[in-house]
Amino acid sequence: MLQKMKTDTLNWLIIIGVLLFVIEVAFFHGGLIFSVVFSGLFIYLGWKRYAKLWGKVLFWIGLITLIITILNMIAVRFLLIAGVVMFLLHYSRSKKNPQYIRPEWTEGNPPCKESVFKKEPLFQQKFFGDQQTADTAYQWNDINIHGGFGDRVIDLSNTVLPEDTAVISIRHMIGSIVVYVPYEVEVSIHHGAIFGRANIFGHQHLRLMNQTVSYQTEGYAKNKPRVKIITTMLSGDFEVKRV
User: Fold this and answer.
1) Structure confidence at residue 4 (pLDDT)
2) What DSSP state is assigned to residue 73?
């Protein structure tokens, strides 16, 4: 069933499931937390002494109690449903109107023992919402970020890559990642996903399920400029294309 489900549909189900779990825990008034801690203590003590009869009894009592506690979580309240609806509306709007990231360069800090200057990152650590490189020329900085929900769009045609290897490293939960690469740039790609799809220079993977894929252009080892792309995702689409 998961293989036939569209990526976006799976994304919505994951989002709603996580939110409902957090909501139920928050509104249990501590009873759920106490039960989980109590059961966890029994499981830990039983596992440490599992070779003995009383250890086995403690372990299975704790495990059964933990399962019953999870299966008896309270229903979702009205205000929490409203919160879920607001989040879904926000996510839908962010998909239609991605946020454009335009770096603003600042002057360097006053010199101390060694002269240094501050560099603004192309992307900020952002849990919600979309991010995209500027649609005008911008100065390149290596990208190393992690995010939660939303899309990431990186266009390398509007920047000058460094003489050594440029690096794009993104760890993301739910959304999509698109990288536009000029034809003269060599590329090494390593992508991993729990659920999703990938399209790398026309090589399509329509059903990624806890898999990793790696590609490298023929001249990557000897030609420059070049970029190394490393991405990991929980659920979403990944695409690398030439521009």
Assistant:
1) 44
2) P
Closest C-alpha to 196, from 174, 163, 215: 174
According to the model, what pLDDT value does residue 6 have?
Answer: 59
CB within 8 A of 236, min separation 6: which ones?
7, 11, 172, 174, 175, 176, 177, 193, 195, 196
Q: Which of 163, 203, 160 is nearest to 182 (CA)?
A: 160
| Cβ partners under 8 Å of residue 174, min gap 6 | 11, 14, 15, 148, 149, 233, 234, 235, 236
Q: Which amino acid is at 205?
A: H
Reported residue count of the chain is 243
Q: How far apart are CA 128 and CA 61, in angstroms?
A: 40
Q: Check if the beta carbon of residue 235 is closer than 8 Å to that of residue 195.
A: yes
Rounded to 5 degrees, φ, ψ at 238 are: -130, 130
pLDDT at 1: 43
Q: List the chain residues with pLDDT less than 50.
A: 1-4, 75-76, 78-79, 101, 105, 109-112
Which sign, positive or negative, has the C-alpha torsion 195, 86, 97, 122? negative
> Which residue is associated with the tokens 């002269």?
115
